[in-house]
Amino acid sequence: METLFFLIISFVAIVSAILVITCKNPINSALALIMTFFCLATYYVMLDAPFMAAVQVMVYAGAIMVLMVFTIMLLNIRVDSSKKHSHKLVFGSIIGFFTVLNSIIVIVKGRAALPTGPYSGEMIQKFGHTELIGREMFTNFLLPFEVTSILLLVAIVGAVILAKKKI
Amino acid sequence: MSNVLSLTTFLPILGVLLLLFIPKDSKGVLRNVTLAVTVVTFLVSLIILTGFQANAEFQFAENVPWIAAGPFIMRYNIAVDGISLWLVILTTFIMPIAVLSTYTAVEEKVKEYMICLLLLETGMLGAFISLDLFLFYIFWEVMLIPMYFMIGIWGGKNKIYAAVKFFIYTMVGSLLMLVALIFLYFKGMEAGITDFGLLNFFSLKLDMATQIWLFLAFAFAFAIKVPMFPLHTWLPDAHTEAPTAGSVILAAVLLKMGTYGYVRFAIPLFPDAAHKFAPLIATLAVIGIIYAALVAMVQEDVKKLVAYSSVAHLGFVMLGVFAFNVEGITGGMLQMLNHGISTGALFLIVGFIYERRHTRLITDFGGLSKQMPIFATIFMIVTFSSVGLPGTNGFVGEFLILLGAFESQLRWWTIVATSGVILSAVYMLWVFQRVMFGELDNPKNQKLLDLNAREIAIMVPLLVMIFFMGLYPKPFIDKMDPAIKKLVAQVRVAPVNAQTMPVEAVSQKMPAGYQENGMPPGHPGMETPSASQAAPAVNPHDAK
Amino acid sequence: MENLNSYLIMSAILFAIGTIGVLTRKNVIVIFMCVEMMLNAANLSFVAFSRHLGNMDGQIFVFFIMTVAAAEAAVGLALIIAFYNNKESIDVDDVSIMKW
Amino acid sequence: MDMISIPVVNMTPILPEIVLSVLAMALLLINVFAPGGQKSFLAYISFIGIIVAAVLVGTGWGNHIESFSGSVVLDNFATFFKVTFLVAAGLAVLISDQYMEREGCNHGELYPLILFTVVGMMLMASGTDLMTIFLGLEVMSVSLYVLAGFNRANRKSNEAGLKYFLLGSFSTGFLLYGMALIYGATGTTRLYKIAVIVGQMTLPSANIMLVAGMLLMMTGFAFKIAAAPFHMWTPDVYEGAPTPMTAFMSAGPKAAGFAALLRLFLVALPTLQVEWSQVLWVLAVLTMTVGNITALRQDNIKRILAYSSIAHAGYALVGFAAGNGTGTSGILFYMLSYAFMNIGAFAIVILVAKKGETNGNVMDFAGLGFKRPVLAVVMTIFLFSLAGVPPAAGFIGKFYLFAGAVQKGYIWLAVIGVLNSAASAYYYLRIMVYMYMKEPTEEFEWVHVTAPVALALIIAVAGTVIPGIVPSFILQYAQMAVKLL
Amino acid sequence: MFDNVWLIPLFPLIGFLINGLFGKKIKNEAVIGGIGTLMIFFSFLVSCGILMQMIGLPPEQRVFEKVVFPWIHCGNFKADMAFLVDPLSCVMIMVVTGVGSLIHLYSIGYMHGEEGFYRFFAYLNLFCMSMLLLVLGSNMLVMFIGWEGVGLCSYLLIGYYFHKKSAGDAAKKAFVMNRVGDFGFLIGLFTLYWWFGSNHNIWTINFTEIKAASHLLPYGGVVTVATLCFFVGATGKSAQIPLFTWLPDAMEGPTPVSALIHAATMVTAGVYMIGRMSFVFIKSPETMMVIAVVGAATAIFAATIGTAQNDIKRVLAYSTVSQLGYMFLAMGVGAFTAGIFHLMTHAFFKACLFLGSGSVIHSMHHALHKIHSHDDAQDMRNMGGLRKAMPITFITFLVSTIAISGIPGFSGFFSKDEILWMSFSNAYHGNLNIVLWGIGAAAALLTAFYMFRLVFMTFFGECRIKPEAKSYLHESPLVITIPLMVLGVLAAVGGYLGMPKIFGMLPNYFEHWLEPVFELATEYGSKYAQHGAHPSHTLEWGLMGLSVVIALVGIATAFTMYVKNTELPGKFVATFPALHRAVYNKWYVDELYDFLFVNPCKALGQFLWKGFDIVIVDGVVNGVANVVMGISGIFRYMQSGYIYNYAFSMALGVVVMLGYYIFK
Q1: D-interface mutation test, from E624, E634, E657, E658, most D Cβ less than 10 A away
Q2: pLDDT band at A78 (very low <50, low <70, confident <90, very high)
Q3: Out of B395, B438, B507, closest to residue E200 by CB
Q4: Residues 6+ positions from E254 with CB-CB distance below 8 Å
Q5: Which H helix or E strand runs over E136?
Q6: Taking Cα atoms as reference points, which of D293, D343, D285 lies closest to residue D314?
Q7: Is pLDDT of B120 > 60?
Q8: d(Cα E291, Cα E235) in Å, to the nearest integer?
């Protein structure tokens, strides 16, 4: 059952991902990408990471993609204009194929580390995913967390500098 | 004055600092100050000369820590011995002449020019006195910069090509040498050597393969600088384009860096490889001699001709050096000095007529003797010095080289090289004839002025040296002799040729007189290395 | 929970598709979307590994990656807008006045 | 489960970062209230702040303090690199004002962004957790995207920003995927733990996941240091970005990339040295060759310097491929001196160029040597140093890099390196040829050299020449810095 | 006196320095000429003193070496500036300083009014110094200084009229040909030095030391190599086949130069050198044979050319070449004394001949100049009947001609006849001796012929000069005629110093004098000499008579052709045009050399420069640069500016890297 569900989700994810790179209209691409993100969120749920799923939906599907769609609308961009570089697709596909091939071989032949951490599925169920994330983030990963604030500040300043009509 | 060597080396830098404060329009002051600096440097270098004891030791040594980081220890380690002493003196001697030669030739950018000259002097002196391989490399590269500018800024029509060619050509070689130098250091480190001091590495026993690679890298760098056939093509370009002083310095001193490099570094560091490659290098040297002479013969530009003659002369030097015996190396060293003086003088002479006529094409001249008798006389003396006429300096060096090479295993090479003596006469006399003899038919030449006092003053020291070194080379040889003997002893670790023994044995064993009817043991083709020189055993028969 | 490798392969496929998109699309925004897809593929790997290993580090990482993605989106879209203001185009072929 | 108790952390390791961040934020505020148009004082403040930070960094020398439960460390290695970043930033700040004023984009946000970049770089150098390093990288990159596109009225600047951004985030994708694989293969993101776990593996090089992760991560950093074949953004971005930012980018982020990569490979993956050496060997050769050879045919001076910057990354990779004390300390030394000489060179480019960067070709340098001899001499010093001609810092750096390779037995790598250096001489000489050996094509405009730029030039010359003549002390620091890794 | 031997070369050196440095300022010809002449005369006086002292010593003590200062000391090699005084060098210094003084004196008159008067005397002094160094040098290297020094002076003096292209060419040719010889000299020196050094640890180039060790030398082998090389040197200096072509051209120089350098002294240096090292040469039968054959061949070859030349000096020049051939023939057959003897007598009569011709030319030139004619003052076809106008010149000239032709009683007869006899009777060359003698005799015939042809054409018959110039022809001044007379006397009586024993009248002073020098050579030679039946006195007398007859035949032929039947030469030319053309054009040897050496060298030079140096060597260098530049272009255009291309490059890099590790 779970396998079937995984397969269905995977199918949807792949199809929507392909749509992202094939749709002529960027809006369609954006919608397809949102679909992909949803699929990923579903995976996260399946991986016992409900908080991640929520964040995924909020940040990606919600914030980032909205921003993108907004930009697309703002710039009033329609379909991809010319077809000058048809060879791109060939090269891109070849690279993509080899990337997949390489990655899959890496995954299949590679040896992931053995499970060592304390966070089994039961534990997550017991304490709640959000809490565990929060605990980790404010203890072991305090510094990165703080750094993200700077990152966001930089992004804000940068976006303002670059895009504001008049500074 | 314990640091007189440093003083000599860095005096020109002080001069540069001085020049910086002189406004660039007061050209006369700039020139005179530069001249004064170089003269003072020369005088200071005379302290070295007079204080130098004729023994094999390195003298006036200064050795202070400089860089110590990681595996490397570099020291400011300088000294002179009989080999470098004369090159130092040659440098300081040539510099005032070079400065003086440009009093009227360089009218633009005088300040920069003088600064270049002085920087160049420091670079050259530093390279000659460095006993630290790293320090040597630094000076070796530093020399390039001012020379590059001298060719590039004050050069002739094709100056940029020549300057860039000069720089990159030399750089390729020297960078490979740098790699070899690093490699050598690590090899030395394995054997317990702790710094870049040259003398440390002499005791290093390297295996043959390593020696070969390292030697090739060093030899390549030096061969470019020498320049040896077929790496010589930068030289005619550089010489032709460089201003007179540049050519003089290039010929007189810079080219010596290559040969000096062989004597000081490549050969004693890698004696076995040097022996192995001696035939190859001698072949190239001999090809260089003949080839350059033939090419010089058909040149239309006087300066290019002199440039090619340099290639031939330095071929002689290389041949002598690779004879690995006292005569050959002494000859090589003397020839370096001679070439510095004679070819330097030749470039000055070319400069004189170029200044007057703004052409260097042989066909533009003819019959100048009539109009410029002093010039003609000087030109002739220098020509014959360059040709190697006995009594002039050129002969002593050339003779010793050929003698030394003939004694060594390079006999057949010597015979070919000796024919270069004929060719040098051909091209030098031919150019002399075409420029100085014949009808004075070109109207532009008919109003030429003879040399003025300054120009004569430039040439006189050179002429004096030409004859002094030709007639009484003893002081020169005496001072360099112990160092060269030491070098020869050091290099003579070459694998002993099996054929040497019988010759000695035969001549010892055979009853006197028997040999007279027999075939000579030493057939010219046979290997009879000069190693037997060392044998003090005197045939009792010879005492008679 | 599915097998770890399934997720990883899925991640790899998404990553590859993202790469292809970057290489083939002309619209700058779409290219950027493809980059986002690549980041998401990495995220999926992280989460899958995190679940497999039983430690939270991977998920924390994903959290930061999302932040970064957001920041990049902000700056990136600002850049796109700035470019558009000058050039009236977001065709990647037009982002090529500097070459050779 | 109990309450989350925020752990007590030792702030010392990130003190300079904090100072700079606070300063940056303060500057953002000051900027808002600053009198219109007058932005120079922001540069001075930033410069002072940078000096203060440098002093703080300096006081940390000799310490080894881990903090934030192993996210970050203060050690000599980080300190050395932080100094390098601060040098780059300080010089960049000094040369920015005049340029930005001329180009009409003297927005006060420039300086905070530079400072934030430095913070990001510092985190990359001192981070001991993949996350810290990644976030540092992103702080740096995002700032740089903005800085590259800072002159938003200029199409080239737009394009530079956009290219840098797109390709940068593309490379981030690889980097992250690599980190994911490393994480998967080792189960942790802490470098020291990775080192332990990898050390316990029987045959780490056979674990393809680990190796692939390493390679992908390398890709990400190789992009930052502009190593071929991940270098192609460099010329375009360098050309388009505002020149001071180009200068900064060529020195700072490159050093930061090396810092992170060195720490990753030497701390976390020393057991895989055979593998990464091999790759770096190839990358070094490619990078040097592509950089140098392509530069030969360039006319735009910023592009020349961009390709030269690629080539220099290649030289540094030579030392990296060696991976021994000599080579890595060579990288440290080289990055520091490169900051001086390259930013110095760009400063001259700024002075020679006219508004709108119209004067950016080598031909425009014609006659500089005698019209503005001091500028030309200074430029010459930088160029010779870049070409690796003694006695300049560039030579000593190269010497140690190649020495490292030779020591490790990579003689051919060193040989290729020196041949490349020789080829590189051509394009450096070409600039000099124009400066000294050609007559100016048009009337020379008198460039006013403002005090900050003059100061920057003085510092840069000192930083290029002095370490060239007496390099010992810096080299010893560099040695100490890599010893503890 | 011996200790003062260094004064001999020093005086001319002083003269050279004074005239060379200040001559231009002095201007006064008398002072300049006086200094030059006096200096060499002082040397002559010192030489006389040395000679006197030496005569007073017993023969075995007649060797003295004087080291003036150390010159080159290097490793085993040692060469001092040192002089060797022995009977041989005594003969030479006497000849050089004696004849030299006379020629200097003569030059004062002859060079009167020339533009570079001081230059001429400076060079002449320099030449004398070099020549004296050559003959006095106690080791090969000092000899070599002189050897090259005389070459230099020859160059300078031939090129004295430097504005004439032909003079410059001739000077250069002379120097270069000498250099070819020097090449041989050096190789010979090296070989000998190396052989002694490496085999016997005797590192020397000192003549006395080599002499002392010469018993160690083998016969043939290395000695052949060394001596052949030395002989190449001698052929260059002494204008033997194949290096003789420079000497006739050298007549471009002023006539006193021709007399001094190209007749009396320098060109005999080769002979002297072989004499000096006779103990080495004799050890190689092969070399001796080569010397003899080359000498004989040169003698006959040059003589044939001499018969057809019209330039008075050229005839003399070929005559010199021919006579030098005789000397070499003498050396080659082991008759060293005879060779040196002929050297001396030749110096007398040939110097006299040249000076006489100079006197004629001087007079002719003067006369032609007066009538503004551009006729060649040296062409014999313009002369004739001059004996009336120039009696002293005529008489001295005639005496010398008789001497060279080998008429008994005159010096040439004794020396030449001894050579012919020795070549016939020598025991070294087996049956070759007849051939050598035959060639020698034939050459003698030709010599008599062309010399008398010269005399007849110049001094006898109709005066072919333009009539109006005739009145201007007159005898030269005393300063010119005195040397002529002195030399004429010497040419006549000089031979009595070495009268053959067979005459029994006078002891052969000359042979006794030189005996200590050639003693060793004779001893070595006897080792391989084939002692057949000793030729009888009758035979010697017979051959002597035959050679006299031959000389007379030659004179008679010349008389017939040029005095009695003056149309005969024309007929002869008409009958054998090809032969005449070949002879007249010196057998096309110059053209042959141009074809064989000069032109190929130039062509090779051109090829190496334009074809090899520029195209190949530089082409490779620039080619590498161009290839790199080309690659640069390719790399440059790969930088297309398109983001997807850049991304592609990155992705490709990743894929390849991964692929390598996955599939390796």
Answers
A1: E657
A2: low
A3: B507
A4: E107, E110, E111, E114, E120, E157, E160, E161
A5: helix E117-136
A6: D285
A7: yes
A8: 9
Of the candidates A92, A95, A102, the beta carbon closest to that of E662 is on A102
Residues in chain E: 664
Integer CA distances (angstroms), E244 to D214, E231, E254, E489, in order: 84, 13, 19, 30
Across the range B384-404, mean pLDDT stands at 87
Chain B neighbours among D 348-377 (CB < 8 Å)?
369-370, 373
A and B in touch (3+ CB pairs within 8 angstroms): no
User: Is 90 exceeded by the pLDDT of residue D310?
Assistant: yes
Q: Which residues pair with D190 in a beta bridge?
A: D129
In degrees and rounded to multiples of 5, residue D108 shows phi and psi of: -65, -15
Highest CATH level, class, for A2-77+119-166: mainly alpha
In DSSP terms, A113 is beta-bridged to: none
> Residue B232: which of B255, B214, B211, B212 has the closest Cα?
B255
Greater pLDDT, B525 or E574: E574
Radius of gyration of the CA atoms of chain D, in A: 21
Task: Name beta bridge partners: B68.
Answer: B73
CA dihedral A30, A34, A36, A39 (to 10 degrees): -170
Q: Supply the pLDDT for residue B521.
A: 42
More confident residue, B156 or D53: D53
**Chain B residues with CB-CB distance to D315 below 8 A:** none
**Are residues D299 and D362 in contact, defined by beta-carbon separation less than 8 angstroms?**
yes
What residues does each domain of chain C span? 4-95
Q: Which ipTM was obtained for this model? A: 0.89
Is B343 in contact with B302 (CB distance < 8 Å)? no
Q: Which residues, in sequence order, are CB contacts of A3 under 8 Å at separation 6+?
A: C2
Tell me which residue has tokens 């006999």: B411
In this predicted structure, the answer to whether residue B533 has a pLDDT above a threshold of 80 is no
Where would I find the H helices in C1-100? Answer: 4-24, 28-53, 57-87
Three-state secondary-structure class, residue E72 = strand
CATH 1.10.287.3510 fits C4-95, yes or no: yes
Contact D65, D10 (CB under 8 A): yes
- Report domain extents, chain D: 12-483
* Residue E64 main-chain phi, psi, to 5 deg: -150, 135
Task: Give the closest residue to E451 by CA, choosing from E344, E340, E346.
Answer: E346
Compute the distance between CA of residue B197 and CA of residue B130 in angstroms, rounded to an integer. Answer: 9
- CA E111/CA E157 separation, integer angstroms: 13
Distances (CA, A) of D411 to B134, B141, B142, B215: 18, 21, 25, 15
d(CA C32, nearest CA chain A) in Å? 9
Which residues 164-183 in chain B show a CB within 8 A of chain E?
165, 169
Q: Which two tokens stand for residue B305?
A: 């001709």
Cα–Cα distances in angstroms (integers) from residue D463 to residues D84, D125, D351, in the given order = 11, 22, 20
Sign of the alpha-carbon torsion through A28, A33, A39, A42: negative
Please tell me the distance from the alpha carbon of residue E303 to that of residue D149, in angstroms, as a whole number: 98
Could you tell me which chains touch chain D, where touching means 3 or more CB pairs under 8 A? A, B, C, E
Question: Domain-by-domain residue ranges, chain A?
Answer: 2-77+119-166
Six token digits for residue D91 = 């010089």
The answer to whether B222 and B258 are in contact (CB under 8 A) is: yes
Give the C-alpha separation, D33 to E634, whole Å.
52
Nearest CA-CA distance, residue C91 and chain A, Å: 8
Q: Which of E599, D424, E625 is nearest to B233 (CA)?
A: E625
And the tokens for B383? 């020509």
Continuous segment of H or E residues that includes residue B240: helix B234-241
Stated as kind and residue range, the H or E segment containing B72 is strand B72-80
